[in-house]
Design goal:
Elements (H helix, E strand, L loop, with lengths): L1 H6 L15 H15 L4 H6 L2 H10 L4 H18 L6 H4 L8 E7 L5 E5 L9 H17 L8 E6 L11 H14 L4 E7 L3 H10 L5 H5 L1 E4 L4 H10 L6 H5 L6 H19 L9 H15 L41
Parallel strand pairs: 2-3, 3-4, 4-5
Antiparallel strand pairs: 1-2
Helix pairs in contact: 2-4, 2-5, 4-5, 7-8
Length: 335
């Protein structure tokens, strides 16, 4: 536990000096990236706004060629998988135990919060588990407040056991989706009270994680005051108490009503009306431009010097990998 805590001690959500040096430089790269992906129509055009392109550039350290490949892969995936068309009725059975849900709280900075309880695994169909995860990623993005682009993951290991560990195939597909199709959407992922056995698995899987994602994973233990500071930095006092301590933190019937209303918002947004998130992306775009100036390091050096932060091979999940029944995908999420 001590070694994991040391690696979680850096400031939560701290940014890396890998931004474009000026707004003008950033905008020029966005224009070049847009030209490289060609003309888009319909939902893909709506998806690939300037804020989206900026996130993909950030994920690839403002390397246009690498961002182009990453974005084109996502566009092809979205056109095929159609994540925006997934509805609550499609994944309601997966969600009966509350193994994944969007919390009613936000952190001090307004980040949407996704809660995961891998110990509540209730199904064994990997395709449906992926669909549930994608649904909640889309839902978390839909519910981001104005001026915010990122979410927080709270992963509670209460009730987890080896029998509920994630098979390698599902872990690989999960991490691929998270890191490559939702880049720069994660603020921080908190792993709460992972058992000692998890440390060995973490050592195995961390080399497969994107470096940016790796730096956003924080280990928190209820009996370790130092690690608890991570939560206090993120949330108001007792804000997460129900999530981590109340076994009845989730009521399926009530939550279903909330998600059905969100499905209506999603349908409206992707229809192109825009009412579902009026002003949210432009505000986030402004916030991103400010970050480009205040926290950036110049990329006036050779483009080829940009570090390729993509995993050397297909990434794996943060959840332990073992030949066990399929379980909730628990991974270090999207950077």
């Amino acid at each position: 536990m001590t070694s994991l805590l040391k690696k979680s001690a850096s400031k939560v959500g701290s940014r890396n000096l890998d931004e474009s040096s000026t707004v003008e430089d950033a905008n020029a790269r966005i224009i070049e990236l847009r030209a490289s992906i060609g003309t888009l129509t319909g939902r893909l055009d709506q998806f690939a706004d300037d804020a989206c392109l900026r996130r993909y550039l950030r994920a690839r350290n403002w390397n246009i060629k690498k961002a182009e490949k990453m974005l084109k892969d996502t566009l092809a995936w979205r056109e095929s998988y159609k994540p925006e068309d997934i509805r609550w009725s499609d994944i309601a059975g997966e969600s009966e135990t509350g193994k994944i849900y969007r919390a009613s709280i936000k952190d001090k900075n307004g980040h949407t919060v996704l809660v995961m309880h891998p110990g509540r695994q209730n199904t064994s169909n990997p395709e449906m588990q992926i669909k549930q995860l994608v649904y909640f990623l889309e839902n978390a993005v839909l519910n981001l407040p104005e001026g915010q682009e990122q979410m927080i993951w709270l992963i509670d290991f209460k009730g987890w056991s080896m029998k509920k560990s994630t098979p390698i195939g599902l872990a690989r597909e999960t991490a691929n989706i998270l890191q490559n199709h939702y880049p720069e959407r994660l603020h921080v992922a908190v792993l709460y009270n992972p058992p000692r056995l998890f440390e060995a698995f973490w050592t195995i899987v961390k080399p497969f994680l994107d470096p940016k994602t790796f730096r956003k994973v924080k280990f928190v233990y209820s009996k370790n005051a130092e690690s608890q500071k991570i939560l206090s930095e993120l949330f108001e006092e007792n804000a997460t108490k129900t999530i981590f301590e109340d076994p009845n933190d989730y009521t399926h019937e009530d939550y279903a009503k909330l998600m059905q209303e969100d499905d209506k918002k999603s349908a409206l947004y992707w229809k192109g009306a825009g009412e579902a998130k009026t002003g949210a992306e432009p505000a986030a775009d402004v916030q991103s431009k400010a970050a480009d100036i205040s926290e950036a390091a110049s990329l006036k050096t050779e483009e080829g010097a940009a570090v390729n932060d993509a995993p050397a091979s297909a990434p794996e999940s943060l959840a332990p990998v073992a030949p066990a029944p399929v379980a909730t995908p628990v991974v270090a999420p999207v950077s």
